[in-house]
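Q: Got a minute? One more chain.
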Amino acid sequence: MSIDWKLLVDVRERQKTAAMGVVARDRAAAEESQARLQQAEAWQQQQVQNKARHWEATRGALSGGQCSVEAFRSAGAWSGALDARIAEAGQATVQAARAHSEREQVLEKSRRQLRAAHGELEKARQMQQRARTERLHLQELRLEDANEESTAQAWAMRRPA
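A: Always. Here it is, folded:
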């Protein structure tokens, strides 16, 4: 059985090209998930800053003597609402981080598959070159054998009977 090395190399090249497409798609998905994670982290940070500003304003009102008990209660209630937003933002960040981690794992898997496809392509190319070299070597040997045979026949014809 003879192996069609050109066909095998072509198949391996198509596999590598397909793997490159998968890596590109997975990289784009990982970049999108990274952007969503950064947005979630920014939103969470914004909520923490909102609470800090709220209490700074409340402290300012207290120090200025402009804060009643009712205003203080209202500030506490608003702080609770801000705490709920912070918790919601934290949960969104955790989910975005988990999703991004999964996308990164998928990307790493597709990169490993691309490396394997590249290795298979290189192996097929090496085997194709090795087969070509062997074929050329056999042709040279046959040519040498043919030359030796024709030389022997010519010598035999010149030899006196």
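A: The domain at 5-131 is CATH 1.10.287 (Helix Hairpins).
Q: Perfect, thanks.
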